[in-house]
Amino acid sequence: MTLAVYPGTFDPITLGHVDVVTRARTVFDRVVVGVAHNAAKRGRHLFDLDERLELARACLAHLSGVDVDVVPGLLADYCRERGAEAIIKGLRNGTDLDAEVPMALLNRDLGGPETVFLAAAGPHAHVSSSLVKDVAGHGGDVSGLVPDVVLAALERELAPAAARRSAGRP
Ligand code: PNS
User: Fold this and answer.
1) What's the total number of domains in the chain?
2) Nearest CA to 121 among 16, 41, 50, 32?
3) Is the residue at 70 inside a domain?
4) Which of 25, 30, 52, 129 is catalytic?
5) Is residue 52 a part of any domain in this protein?
6) What is the pLDDT of residues 99-156, one digit of tens each?
7) Which value, in Å, is the radius of gyration of the alpha carbons in the chain?
8) Is residue 9 within 8 Å of 35, Cβ to Cβ?
9) Residue 88 CA, ligand 1 centroid: distance in Å
C-alpha cells in the first residue's frame, strides 16, 4: 500500500487543495492531508488548528483513502513515522516552484521522502488560501473558490469586519 502526505497550512482548505488531493489519490493508495502549525505563520492564521482540521475533514469526507491529521513538528519526521513514500505538493506557477524546490531538497536531507509535484489544473489552478482570505475579507464573492462549508465558516469568521464595513467604519 502506497502512502503520501500532502502537507500545508490549509487556512482554509480551498477547491484547489481538494483537486490536488483527488488527483493524488489516483497515484497513491492513501493520502494523508497533514495540517501543519507552520511556525512562520503562527499567530497569523484566520482559523485555529482545530477549525482547519474540521474544515479539511468536512471537505474531503467524500474521498476514500484520505485522512486528515496534524503535522506537529518537522514534516520529514512525520513522514518517516507514518512510513510515507512521498510528499505531495501542488504547483500553480514558477513562484511556487522556486519556494518548493528548496523545501523538497531540505526535506530529503532531513530524512524525509521524495516530493512529488502535481501541476495545479482546472478552474481552481490559481486559487490560494491567502487570496481567498483577502477577497472574502473585503466582502468579495469566493463562492466558486472554496467548498460551501468553508464559505459558511469564512462568513462567520469575517462577520464582524463585514458589519464594520457596512456601518462605514474601518
Ligand atoms: O500551505 P503552506 O503554508 O504553504 O504550507 C507550508 C508547510 C506547512 C508545508 C511547511 O511550512 C512545512 O512543511 N511545515 C512543517 C515544518 C517543517 O518541516 N518545516 C521545514 C520544511 S523544509
Assistant:
1) 1
2) 16
3) yes
4) 129
5) yes
6) 999 999 999 999 999 999 999 999 999 999 999 999 999 999 999 999 999 999 999 9
7) 16
8) yes
9) 12
Within a domain: 61 = yes
- Supply the DSSP symbol for 115: E
> What range does the domain containing 91 cover?
3-130
141 close to 165: Cβ distance less than 8 angstroms? no
Q: Are 107 and 115 a contacting pair, CB within 8 Å?
A: yes
Measure the CA–CA gap between 98 and 91, rounded to whole angstroms: 10
Based on the residue annotation, tell me whether 89 is a catalytic residue of this protein: no
Q: Is 74 a pocket residue for ligand 1 (Cβ < 6 Å)?
A: yes
Consecutive H or E run containing 57: helix 49-60
Residues recorded for the chain:
170
Is 152 contained in some domain? no
